[in-house]
Amino acid sequence: MSLFFGGVGLCLGWAVAQPTERSKAFLQAQGYTRRQVWDSALLAWRALLNRETDSGAVALIYQQLGYIALHKGDSTEALRLWETALRFWPVYRTALQNYQWLRQRLRQPPPPTPPHLHRYTPPPPLSEKAPPTPGELPLPRKLPEPQWLPAARLQR
């Protein structure tokens, strides 16, 4: 009997130790970042940002995107991304230290950028009630012609 429970415990331990798809995606994105393959890292972090719902994980993603932006030479975007990370998780020490460090190094604060010009994060999806912006008007749809059914068919 103990052999049976030992085997079940071993199987459960193996199942728990297997990385999930989410953790594999995070490890892949982190690997690209460590190897400084910026384009692949940027795509991997953006993909994670689109499907992540946990605020701590979203803060981590924004922190990493800020790191990438800084290494690509865009300090204004890095500051904005680190500030966004702190909005999702205000006690995130790494994002706070990076934000403060870069803010002190800059001689003057950067001008605010309009949201549609942010280069490192995808734009948020528009809701159905949002007014379209210039250049994003929906294509006109041709409505189908109504089909009239014979009166004999309707009486059944």
Q: What do you see in this structure?
A:
The chain is an all-alpha fold. It has a domain at about 20-110: Tetratricopeptide repeat domain (Serine Threonine Protein Phosphatase 5, Tetratricopeptide repeat), CATH 1.25.40.10. It contains seven helices and no strands. It has helices spanning about 1-15, 20-35, 40-50, 55-70, 75-90, 95-105, 150-155. About 20% of the residues are buried. The model is unreliable at about 1-15 (pLDDT under 50).
Helix/strand layout:
Layout (H helix, E strand, L loop, with lengths): L1 H16 L3 H14 L3 H14 L3 H17 L3 H14 L4 H13 L45 H4 L2
Helix pairs in contact: 2-3, 3-4, 4-5, 5-6
CATH superfamily (homologous) name of the domain at 20-108? Tetratricopeptide repeat domain
CATH fold assignment of the domain at 20-108: Serine Threonine Protein Phosphatase 5, Tetratricopeptide repeat
Please give the alpha-carbon distance between the first and last residues: 68 Å
Largest sheet, described in full? Answer: none
What share of the residues does DSSP label as strand, in percent? under 5%
State Rg: 25 Å
- Mean pLDDT, as a whole number? 74
Number of helices: 7
Primary descriptors:
elongated; disordered N terminus; 59% helix; mainly alpha; Serine Threonine Protein Phosphatase 5, Tetratricopeptide repeat
Could you give a short description of this structure?
With 156 residues, this protein is mostly helical. It is 59% helix and 0% strand.
